[in-house]
Every structure is written in C-alpha cells, then in structure tokens.
Amino acid sequence: MQSPVLHYLYDPFCGWCYGAAPMVSAAQQIPDLKIRAHGVGLLSGDKVQMMSPEWVDFVRPHEARIRAFSKQQFGDAYVHGVQEHQDVLLDSSPPIAAMLVAEEFDARGVVMLKRLQTAYYQEGRAIADRAVIGELSEELGYERDAFLNRLEAMLTSNVISHIALSNDMLKALNMRGFPAFALEIDGELHNMPLGRYFSRPAFFKQEIEALLDGHRA
User: Theoretical Cys-Cys bridge with 38: which of 21, 98, 132, 166, CB 3.0 to 4.6 Å?
Assistant: First the structure.
C-alpha cells in the first residue's frame, strides 16, 4: 500500500477550520499518515478586505457555534484585539504561502498552519502581516530572512495556482464548503464528512485507522 494521505482543505481565516484543529491533531497521531493542506483562498485576490464591524457581525455567530461544538477557545486578544482594530488586513494568501514555505522547507506545513491559527484566534495577531509571519517562522526554528524571502517568491509564483487547484479539488470531491477532509489510499479518495466528526476527533482518528486497516487486510 502506498503511503496514505489525508487531504485537508482549509482557509487560515475560516473559524470552522480552527475548530477542526483537534481533528487534525488526532490524525497526526497516526503513523505513516501524511497530512496535506490545501488553502482555498477565502479572502484572497479580490476578496481581500480589512477588519470591519460587518465582518465581525458575520463571524461571531459562527464562532459561538464553533466554540460549543469543538471546545476550541477564541482568546480575549482576538475578541477584544484584532476584531476591534480596523487596520487588520484579512488576506488569506500570505498565511497560505507561509504554510507552503514550511512544507517546502521541511514538510511542516500543517505545523505552521496550526501555529498561524492559534496566533490569530488565541493571541490576536494579524497573520497576514509579514512581521508576524516572520516572528512565527523564527519561533518554529526557521531563519527569518530566508523564510520571508521564500514567502515573497511563493506569493508571486505559486499561491494563485495552489488556491485554484485547491478549489478544483473541493469541487471534484463534491464538497460544499470547508474545512473538508478526504483520505487518499492507493489513489482512491474517501470523503470524511465534517459533520460526522467535528466534535469527535478521537472518532475521526478511529475511522481513518479503520479505513487503513481495511486496505491492509
């Protein structure tokens, strides 16, 4: 059997994707399972915007539901920090690029993604800001200037095509939204419906392991 891959379609500014982080953590415990993140660009290109009261009014009802289902916490620095500062840029492309650079450097794209999520939703840091990305890259052990130089190149040459391919995958999987998960085993994709697992990360892990065991038998 080829090494299995869990495809994870996400956006760094998607609260439901932050809520799914425990599912990703559970899947990371499975030996030999590769997790491949695909950024969909919720707020990329012509959808880039600044923080605004309208955006806050849109996301807060979702965040209450996310907290209830996933037990993921939205920190005071986020609720009373970035959400109240209208100079915060909401652009999915830089954090997606940071994930891609970390993946390219040492296959830690998912680690960078999860760190970006906690930086934004718990620590209230503006994760589209190059300075913040640089700080997080250093925290994860990367050389700051090398990481940021590659980030700019990634934004110029790779991110647009990556986002396009991610959205193509979302459509091919017949997924209506994100986060979305699909387990690839020997080239065959198995959809993992979010609603079945969102509040049950341990069950998500068990179901993946059962599918893998079924193919090994």
Answer: 166
